[in-house]
Amino acid sequence: MGFGRTHDIGEVSSEMIGLKVVLGGWIEDLRKLGKMTFLTMRDSTGITQVIVKGEQNDKIEGLNRQSVLRIKGTVQETKAKDFDFEVGAEEIEVLAKAIHPLPIDPLGRLESNIDNRLNSRALDMRNQKTASIFKLRHHVLSSIRKTLIEKKFIEINTPKIIGSASEGGANLFSLDYFGKTAYLAQSPQLYKEQMTIGLERVFEIASFYRAEKSHTGRHLSEFTSVDIEAAFMDYTDVMGVLESLIMEVFKFTSTNCKDEQKSIGNEIKVPSSPFEQLTYGKVLDELNAADQKLEFGDDLLDSHLRIVGEKHPGFYFITDWPLKLKPFYIREKDDDASLSRSFDLQYGYLELSSGGTRLHDSKLLKSRLKEQGLDPSQFVDHLRAFDWGMPPHAGWGLGLDRLMTTLVGVDNIREVVLYPRDPDRLTP
After folding, report:
1. Each residue of 175-221: pLDDT tens digit?
2. Burial letters for 81-110: b for 16+ Cβ neighbours within 10 Å, e otherwise?
3. Distances (CA, A) of 352 to 245, 399, 422
4. Global model pTM greater than 0.85
5. Are 289 and 282 in contact (CB under 8 A)?
6. Beta carbons within 10 angstroms of residue 19's beta carbon
7. Helices 302-311 and 280-289, packing angle to 10 deg
8. Element spanning 56, H or E
9. Of residues 82, 138, 123, 128, the one with CA closest to residue 259
């Protein structure tokens, strides 16, 4: 019969009764009643019931669930309450047999912990809840690209193997690069800034790497970041881009991903807009009122953000951070040089994005590097571009995996990443 199909299961409907179809998929369930077998067969688009009679039963004798079949048959009426139609099998071809017992139960009847599921991740994709998370992720990426392209951003790809620390950070993976020391990029920061010279508005969606020994539900060693940089924009402008992008993601998935929401068991609710904006000073006041005793210039720890998040459970911006808490490339405010033109986007206690207006004067950049204890000679390639007519620019980076946890309604970031990498997990 070959491997081809005439239809995906999701394309077949009760309006096709009497038509012949060729379907392919895996056995989700099977039960014998005398000389008849009732199969439920699924593919990535849907599920149907297949009725097997007579000698075709011999072909599926002893087959285990999750085995893969190709079935030629006729769409017919059904008495089954869970289906609008069924398929009467006329020819069956077994394409792949599954072992028994399987390492996890993809139907979810037997609960498996996250580690067991990650160890058998491909099989976990046959669990409809898991599959729906990654279908949602696909739609989120599609929505993000659509929003940014409509706003005249151009998608770029920057190198992930770099010759020097991109932001002067210590948390980098190093590797031998033909006898030289190279690093895995922790962000596209310097490259995306340089690209505003000619392309003006750029974005990248890619994996980046951070060598932090963090054992939390929100940190990974390899993560997906959505990054933008835009010439002739200030931090308030790129905050607007970020907010509209988040709103579109929630609107699109809320409307177009009903089946996925049902499988996951979480209704996607569109947040209210505009997002609340709190200054760093206001957050400090709230924390001091909660007996946290912080001074201006202190960084906000996870424990502090959890207190703030209780009062502000949805999306909100924290703006006007002290300049000394921000990277060397962030620009100060004109009216108060101790404050920065920067922001973080929070969802409750969870930081999703960080961004701001960048310095575009090479002299100022060099002095800021020295202030932060960094060596300007390590950034010579980057600084050169600032002598070629660098426009004022602003941008942000958004953690896609963290955004997915807010959409799906889970705390553990590993649930929304196909093959997560953390300090303890390097396989599969």
Report:
1. 999 999 999 999 999 999 999 999 999 999 999 999 999 888 899 99
2. eeeebbbbbeebeeeeebeeeeebbbeeee
3. 13, 6, 19
4. yes
5. no
6. 12
7. 90
8. helix 56-59
9. 128
